[in-house]
Every structure is written in C-alpha cells, then in structure tokens.
C-alpha cells in the first residue's frame, strides 16, 4: 500500500486506490483492507479519524468467520451481494443481513459472535469499526432495512451518534462524533457532502467524481481532512453507491 505522502492530494483530500489496499486471500476469504489489519501493518496507516477498520470481504459459500470475541468496538456491516448470517452467543441470536440492510454490533463489555455466508451463495460486504466514547456497556445488536431511501437516491444515515441526528430513525452509535451515511446515485446525479473534521468516502459500486479530487472507481476511497462542506459527488456513467463516514473527532481526543 502506498503511504499518504505518495498518493494524490488535493485541498486536504488524499486518494487511496482499490489496488493499493492490503489483501488477505485464503481458500475461503478474499479481504481488502483500507488500514493495517491482521498480518499487514503500516505504522502510517493504522486508522483515520475515529475509523479503525474498513474491510471489503468476499466470503465463499458456507464459510466465514467462526466464533470470536469483540469488546469496546462499534461494528457496522454493509452487505453488497449475497447474505451474511450472524450468530452471537450472548443472546443466542441468529440474523441474516441482505443488500439494502445495515448491521450494527455494539460490542460493549464483550461479545462472541460468528459471521458466515449462506450454504448456497457467497457474500460480499464492507465491515467498518469505530472506537466508542467510553469502554464497557451492555452489548447491542440491530439490523435496519434502508432500501426505500436508497432507491429514492437519498443520503441515508445508517448509524450515528451525532446530536443533529437524534430525532431520526437511525441505528444508534456509541460515538458522539461519528456518523455513517450511504447514497446510491443514478448516472450524472449529484449529492453534497456535509462539513466534517474528517470524512472517509468509499466507492462501493460504480464510479463517482469527487469535486477537486477526480474520479473514484469501485473500491477507491478518499480521506478528507478539515473540509468546509459543500463538496459535490457526481455519479459516473453506470451510477454509484458510496459509503461516507463523517467524523468530528480523532483517537485520543
């Protein structure tokens, strides 16, 4: 992976290309890491703002992550293709997450869970971790279907701890300085990013042009620092689907 100083930078924007991500490939998993993960370590690329992990995973049918623990982490999962089956031992809960649905696991003081593709089909998903405000707390789990808003071309807030989202129907996030948004745009359509101390823009499908930065193809990301807001994202000829983290803090604040 190229380090930030080796990438294109425009007015506080650093572009990270899909092919420059770390990759973990096994018999059942093909995972692309936006930050240091597993055996891949780059001291200059361990996190961004409050975002600790941003993986795009492809999992073979009937396989996946066997039971493992988490604590003190807010975990968001966005399924792109197939179905992801979640099981957690604390509650005995089983759930299947499909495209158009977002899953949140607030690990709190500790939880054990597993994640697998269904036996008939593989699954592709993006999993993202942010640090919570405080350690501990009761583990929390929820899934929300946002298909209607996506199909309407709206910016849909998936999960948030920001005060201005308190009245919206969103998944709660135990991080008061972060929010995750998704938008699906048809060819040539545009949307405007919110002002943020840190913004992470990931192109999950298609391509998009980010104002002052250029074109982001599938799997590309932009990291924006101290943005004043009003920056436009315009979908390419095949449309686009983008995930945006808006963050107003950084680790250690």
Automatic annotation (TrEMBL):
Domain Pirin N-terminal: from-to ranges = 23-130
Name any one Pfam family assigned in the record. Answer: Pirin
Question: Which InterPro entries does the record match to this protein?
Answer: Pirin, Pirin_N_dom, RmlC-like_jellyroll, RmlC_Cupin_sf
Lineage: superkingdom: Bacteria
Instruction: Please state which protein family the record places this protein in.
Output: Belongs to the pirin family.
Q: Which PANTHER family match?
A: QUERCETIN 2,3-DIOXYGENASE (PTHR43212)
| Name recorded for this polypeptide | Pirin family protein
Tell me which species this is from: Pseudonocardia nematodicida
